[in-house]
Every structure is written in structure tokens, then in C-alpha cells.
Amino acid sequence: MSYLRTIRTIGHTSAFARHPHRTVVGRSTITRGHFQVVSQRHFSYEATVAGFWQTLSQSAPVAYVQQGMINLHDLTGLPWWATVILTTVGLRTLVTLPLAVYQNKILARLEQISLEMPELIKELKAETAYAMKKFNWTEKEARIMYNHSLKKQWNNLIVRENCHPAKTMVLLWGQIPLWIVQSVAIRNLVSMLPDPTAIEAQIAYTELTLGGFGWIPNLTELDHSLIFPVALGVINLSIIEIQAASRTKLPSKLQTIFTNLFRGLSILMVPIAASVPSCLCLYWVTSSAYGLGQNLLLLSPRVRRTVGIPAVPSELTHPYQHIRSTFAARLGALSGRLGPNNQHPPPSTKA
């Protein structure tokens, strides 16, 4: 037996030495003596998705949130619908609210340093014109040095105020992972994962079937009334429209594209929410409602000063009146297009 193992090892080594790079995508060929072994590697999309979902559902963050919801439910004695709402509000207050305040601070600092740029640009242009005469620079050389100096000055201001533009996305970096983790944790409770045989998972599932309210007494079933899915779409659209109405400048082409994209995603979430258990839909509605209130709260100048967001020229003095008048103007324009005054008059009957 040891002799055969030695022969196989020598044959494999010599074959690899003769054909060290003999591989084909999706298929591997190995020559052993006079035999050729061909192995086919198959890629399964379903298996990949299932493996990713299993890894995510068994991850430590999901386990912590899932166990935290169970402990909160057992400690407070609240029904599961109230536990979901309380957990959502608590996590968003601890995670996303501070990130939203910090993001607004970064945006305000960027706007403040942008106000210093016109004076710096004026000085750089004067220095560049002087250098062109003194050092006989060409126009191309002067433009290169000017752009280099301008970028350096801008970077110095960013370092001074500690407001790198990448930090304007800090809210998404916290909000999206939190949304995914809590969604998977609630889905685990409904599916009795990661261990369906565990008595604690079976108890939590049973309590979910009895822990609803009103039109959704069973939180493991769909919301057949579509109240929550439609509410989710309305709230998400309201967030987008309020953000668009609170702008004091005309939106750029990129901002318009993203606004329309998020509008489409908000509408797309309605049928998705209608196809998931009502406890998960309840979480999504609660999270979006919290986001709507958070955005409205951080529009107030008094609140912004309280949390340390500096005043900037683009800040609205009376934001709620501005949003109300903007929506009224949009509704007036829409009703004007659809109203009877916009219709063509009937043809005259006079001879």
C-alpha cells in the first residue's frame, strides 16, 4: 500500500511538472500516468444565495439584536408588536440619530469653507498672473500650477475643519447595516432560526402568532389589508419630497436622477412589504416613520443650534412654512393642469 501511494505521489508530481498551468475555467485536468482525470466544477446561484443568507442569519450582530429583542420582550412583558416598535426606536436613537447630527455638521462645515474659496481664488489668480510674467510660464503651465494650488488650498481647509466629503455619507454607513441586521433578526424569529428545534425559538414564534394588534393579530402572517405596505410607500415618498422641498438651490442633474431613483424604490417597496410577514413590515414602517420625524426635527434652526450644527446661508429660517408653501404650490400647479380651466372650450354653435 505504501508503495502504491509513493507511485501515485511521484506520478502526480511529474505530471504537474510537465503541465504546471494546465487548467481550464470551470474544468480542471490532471494527468496521472496514462490516465486523465477531468473534474467539472459547477456554480449554483441558489446555493450561493442560500449560503450567504445562512451566514448572515447566523452572524454575531444578528444574534445580538435577535436575543436583545427576546430579552426586552421577556423583561417588559410587552406584546411583540410593541417590542418591535420599542426596539426600533431605541436602536435608531442610539445609532442613526447621532450619525444624522454628525452628518449635518459636516455638511454645514463644507458650506462654510466653500464661502472662503472666492477670496482664495482671487488671490491665486493674481499670484498665477504674477508668476507667468516673472517665470515666463506658458498658459498650460500656469493652469496646471493654478489647479494644483487650488486643490491644495481646498484640502487644507478640509483638514482644518475635519470635514472630508466622504463623511457626508456616514448616515448611510450606519443606517443600512442596522436596517439589514434588524430585518434579518426579525425574519429569524418568524422562521425559528438559526435552530428551529430550540425551545426558545418555538416559544418566540408562538408568541408572535398571538402578539399582534387590530387588523394583524398574527405577526407571522402577511398584512392582507395592505395598510402597512401602503403606509411604508407614503412615508418614504414623504421623506424624499420633504428633502427636495427643503433645498434652497436648484438641484443638479445628479440630484434629480437620485431623487427620481429613490421615488421609484419607494414605490417598489410597497409590493415587497406586502409579501413579507407583518412584523417585518411593522419594523420597516416604524423605521421609516422615525426617519421622517428625524428629518423634520433637524430642519429646525433651534434644534440645529442645540445639537451644535453651525448656521449656514442655505439654512431655512422658517423651514416648516417653506415646506408647506412648496407643497401648496405644487398642488396648485397640479390642480391647475387637471382643473376645468385647463380644458379646451367646447366648439361654438353659432352659424
UniProtKB/TrEMBL annotation:
InterPro entries: YidC/ALB3/OXA1/COX18, YidC/Oxa/ALB_C
Keywords on record: Membrane, Transmembrane, Transmembrane helix
One of the GO BP terms on file: mitochondrial respiratory chain complex IV assembly
Membrane topology label: Multi-pass membrane protein
Pfam families: 60KD_IMP (PF02096)
Cellular localization per UniProt: Membrane
Family stated for the protein in its record: Belongs to the OXA1/ALB3/YidC family.
Name used for this protein in its record: Membrane insertase YidC/Oxa/ALB C-terminal domain-containing protein
Organism field: Anopheles melas
